[in-house]
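Quick start: what a row looks like.
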Amino acid sequence: MKPTALLRRFLEPRTLLHFGRQPESRYPPSANANDPDWIQASPVRIQRALDRALALPSGGWYVVGATRAIGDTPERHVINGRELVAWRGADGAPRIAPAECPHMGADLACGRVEKGTLICPWHGLALGDAGHGRWKPCKVHDDGVLTWVRLAGPQDAVTETPILAPRPAHFFDGVIRLDAQCEPADVLANRLDPWHGAWYHPHSFGRLRVLEEREDSVLVRVSFRVLGPLAVEVDATFHCPDPRTIVMTIVEGEGTGSVVETHATPIGPGRTAVIEATLATSEREGFLGALGARALVRPLIEARARRLWIEDTAYAERTYAVRSRTHLTVLRPSASPAAESSPRALPRRPTD
């Protein structure tokens, strides 16, 4: 056997060797526990869960991206069709405002920042917290990992801060962003279908079983691959705190309290930014002391998350493309036009 084949057999074997703290709770088998995954992954169930999520209030808030990525150089963002510019004010906190200069419409993302004030690149108009005519900075919230902006529509019941899921007090964190040709609903639907995990991502999930389907969440037992046959087994829930977010929380096993927040921020018709924040914690002795190595651990967290979302972006884009082309009702058809370019090919499951 070739060395590459031997390596692949080690990295993605059928046998799992679990280590670390194991989930101790026991759950009775569900009525359809013996059904194959393709039957358990009922489009009707997924649609019902998606409908509940989309009906939740948002408070008018959207995730912009990782707070640490916002710097002293103006950066352009498009959220729900609105052009915005992000920078840091004199106090070091993030600022977000309309990207169009109120003077003659210049792109403020091409300007510069002087002592926390945004300077227009065309005529030097200085723009800050006081605003200028109708131009005013947006309401911003920095949750310590992500920056949010409030862009409330006429139907939104505005809240002072975003609707956040519980987070651990101490954690390693990583944030990734991928842009996809789909709607936010397609991103949520991907995560509301946990049954695809071990089939579509065998490099990361050795085994995944749905334990309970609750009214507002799904409980799963999953084996996360660490290296080859080595894996940790945990119980985790998936739930939506708002109509553009789905959160996985480890509730039992190694890393209890860790969360993965997947945010679907609409860019425009048929385009969505997938922004995912991973907050990994541990009850093990020495964890707090290890937090000083955040900068070293972060690239590893982000690389693993990015690999998953390269594949899941293809899943969401395929769902959107098929729905747009055939008007299927697995997810509710969007009024947006179909994506202009063809979706990426779905990755194939490696064979032995």
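That is the whole record. Confidence is low (pLDDT under 50) at residues 328-352. The domain at 14-55+164-326 is CATH 3.30.530.20 (Alpha-D-Glucose-1,6-Bisphosphate; Chain A, domain 4).
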